Structure of RNA polymerase sigma factor:
Amino acid sequence: MDLAPKKSQPESLSTLKSTAEQRLKTFMHEVTGRALVMMESATQGQHGIAMDLVQEAFISLHKSYADKSTDEWYPLFYTILNNKLQDWRRKEARRAQPFSFFRKVSLDDDDVEQNDLVDERALNPAEFLDQAMTAEEIQEAIAKLPVRQQQAFMLRAWEGFDTQTTAQIMNCSEGSVKTHYHRAIQALRQTLAHMNPYLGGSSE
């Protein structure tokens, strides 16, 4: 019995596309909040810019990596987001210094690598929490950090990436990640110590 050829390939592609779009919606729902906090801190509270950067990163992720697994999306998304943030920062730096296109723009004043640091475990953000401490206070403390320290801390502590993956996302060496992360932890402990005596500050 002859059967008409089945149009299995177009249907399969359509299903794959639909599945990818559904996965992206789920992925966006999961990471948007944390990504926005990271970008708002990095852009000094400019919510509109932060939202644009996050949305552009999602668009690029779907356009170039829709066929990747959800697990692969996490480092890919933050790599794209970091690149877009650095592009925005360069444009802002050049806008502030009109003739900076004649020289390399330095975005970070703390980008000095310490080679003698032991790789610290990724902290649980709850370790910074206390009944008297609000999420807003913690976010304000993070926002005071240099941008690369913010990124290292939030990628490691909030997202749980290891040092190697964080270095790939931030496009720097593992030693630099260790340095940024270590300095971020020290600065946050100092800033938040008066709120939480368990971080080493005085309870008085």
Remarks:
- The radius of gyration is 21 Å.
- DSSP finds seven helices and no strands in the chain.
